[in-house]
Write a structure and sequence with these properties.
CATH architecture of one domain: Alpha Horseshoe
Distance between the termini: 65 Å
Largest sheet: none
CATH class of one domain: Mainly Alpha
Mean pLDDT: 90
Structural class: mainly alpha
Shape: globular
Length: 261
């Protein structure tokens, strides 16, 4: 596989800048145009496939990654990326096969271990998943994804103190990680620390305004502190974000109950 040149690095950096500015379609068009100019550059092809997955163009992403996997059957990064896309599509058997193959090629890759752990967790194999996340952290103690996912399983197992430590470490490493902030809020709420819970949920919403889950958690935390008006405002904002689904139904039921009170 060709190593990314400086010009390719600049292209990818520009793409990330556009994404950070919310110019998602423009980012896709820019990266696709760059790839068209260098159709044999596997780095650009992989970057475009990953971007397609981020933009929800999963079939296009999978088509490109399938081609790359055939062309570069021993490239662990490409195989890992293909596995992650399969994970997003719900194809757990193929995702696991990709991650296991990538680990054969790169036995100490913490990112691949983390992705395999996610696949195992989705299969309901929590003990195996936890072990994989811990192996990943032995290799890379600052792996934010492994910390977050390890914390999720620990919280599910009732090991709240350990879960909170994992989420806090993840948030300290990446202060922009909305998932870590939301998860830490869940731990604080479960321990009755509602002020801290509200703070973390509000931070999660600020970092990722599109997260209906964080808004729901923030609204419930407000309600549990007695701040019904703030809870009402957040639930209304959630309904503007998500019209359908269980979270929207929960918001409507909560608001209806308050009207009857």
């Amino acid at each position: 596989m060709r190593t990314a040149s400086k010009s390719v690095d600049e292209i990818i950096s520009r793409t990330e800048t556009l994404l950070g500015e919310g110019r998602r379609e423009e980012a896709g068009e820019f990266l696709f145009a760059a790839w068209e100019e260098s159709p044999d550059d596997a780095t650009l092809a992989n970057a475009y496939a990953v971007l397609c997955a981020r933009l929800g163009r999963t079939e296009e992403a999978r088509r490109i990654m399938d081609v790359l996997a055939d062309q570069y059957p021993t490239d662990a990064m490409l195989i890992n990326n293909r596995g992650y896309l399969c994970l997003q599509l719900g194809d757990l058997p193929e995702a696991k096969a990709c991650f296991l193959r990538a680990l054969q090629l790169e036995p100490g890759d913490a990112e691949v271990m983390t992705n395999l752990g996610i696949a195992l967790e989705r299969e309901g194999r929590e003990a195996d998943a936890l072990g994989m996340f811990e192996q990943a952290l032995e290799r890379d103690p600052d792996n934010v994804s492994a910390l977050n996912n390890r914390g999720v399983i620990l919280r599910r197992l009732g090991r709240m103190s350990e879960a909170g430590e994992a989420f806090l470490q993840a948030l300290e490493l990446d202060p922009e990680d909305a998932s870590a902030a939301n998860n830490l809020g869940c731990v604080e709420r479960s321990q009755g620390n509602m002020g801290e819970a509200v703070g973390y949920f509000a931070r999660a919403v600020q970092l990722n305004p599109a997260s209906a889950v964080s808004r729901r958690n923030l609204a419930l935390a407000y309600a549990e502190t007695g701040d019904i008006e703030s809870a009402r405002e957040v639930f209304h904002a959630l309904l503007e974000l998500a019209q359908d689904g269980p979270l929207a139904e929960e918001a409507r039921a909560w608001l209806a109950a308050r009207q009857r009170d």
